[in-house]
Amino acid sequence: MRRGAFILAIVAGILLSACATERKVAREFVSNTPEARFLLIMPNVVFKESLKPIGETHIENPTARQKDSIAFMESDFIRYLPDSLILQLYIPPLLDEFQKLGLNVIPDTITGKFFQDTGKNAYIINIAQLQLQEFSEIVYDTEEIDGRYYYHEHVLNGVHLNKWVEFQKLNSEQKNPMVFFAELTAGDQVDGFFRKNPQTGQVQYSYKMDTLEMGDLHQWVEQAGRVHARYFFDFLMNQYIRINLSKKQIKPRYYLHYDRENDQFVPVTEQRFIRIREE
C-alpha cells in the first residue's frame, strides 16, 4: 500500500471511530424509519438562466432582460431542456429513492390519499423552486518544473441545478416553514499534465477532456432526484440524532450521510441540504 493510501485509511478509521455515538443512534433511525406521512408538492416550472457572456448583438444598449434573453438563446444546453422533460427525469427517481429509504412520501397528484389520515405525523415537503444555471469558467492547470512555472488555460462549461425546499408539519403552530437549499453541478472534466522532454528539454502539455453532453445532463438530472431524496433523509436522520443525544446532554460532532447501497454512515460537510431559514 502506498504511503498516501495508508494515511487515508488511517484518517478514515479515525473518523469512523470518532463518530461511533452518532452512528449508533443513526442505526436506530434507519432500522425504525418514521411512520409519518409526507406530502410532496412539486413545481410546475423550472427556472433557467445562462450566466455565460453574450456575443455581439445588433441591439444597442440592451436592457438586463434583453441580455438574459440573448444569453438563453445562445446557451448550449438549457434552451433544449423544456420544463416537462426536466420534471419527467427528476421526479420519478426522487419518489423511488424516498420509497427505498422507507419514507412514506405521497405526490401532490394524489392528495386524497394523504389527507385520508393526516394524524399528528403529517408533513409537507414543498419544492419551492428548481433552477438550472448554465455557466462557463476559466481554469488553469499549473506546474513548476526546474524553477519555472508553466500554465495552460481551459474554458469549461457546466450547469448548476439549484433547489429550494420548504418543510413544515401540517397544522403546525409555526407560521414559517424551514427552508433548505442545495446546489449540484455537472460540467466538463479535464485531466492534464506537463512533461519535460528529456531529449530536447522542451516542456509539453497533454490533456484529455471529458466534455459535457446532453445525454450526460439527462442522466445527471435523474441522479439529482435520488441525491435530493437522500439529502432529505439525512436531514431527518440527523435531527433524530440531535434530539436523542441532547437527552444525554451530548452535542453531535458530525453530520452523517446514510449510504443506502453499502448500508454505511459517512460524515459529510458539503453533500447535504443547507438550512437557510429556521422554523
Report on this structure.
By secondary structure, the protein is α/β, with parallel strands linked by helices. It has one domain (24-136, 158-186, 213-277). 20% of the residues are buried. The model has no long low-confidence stretch (mean pLDDT 90). The protein is built from six helices and eleven strands. Helices cover 34% and strands 35% of the residues. The strands form three sheets. Strands 1, 2, 3, 4, 5, 6 and 11 form a seven-stranded mixed sheet that branches. The protein has a two-stranded antiparallel ribbon with strand order 7-8. A two-stranded antiparallel sheet has the order 9-10. The termini are far apart. It has helices at 3-18, 20-31, 64-73, 83-100, 111-115, 214-246; strands at residues 37-41, 47-50, 104-107, 122-145, 148-169, 178-187, 189-196, 203-210, 255-259, 264-268, 274-277.
Sketch the major β-sheet: 7 strands, mixed
- Domain count: the total is 1
Beta-strand share of residues: 35-45%
By DSSP (H or I, 4+ residues per run), the number of helices equals 6
Distance between the termini: 49 Å
Rg: 24 Å
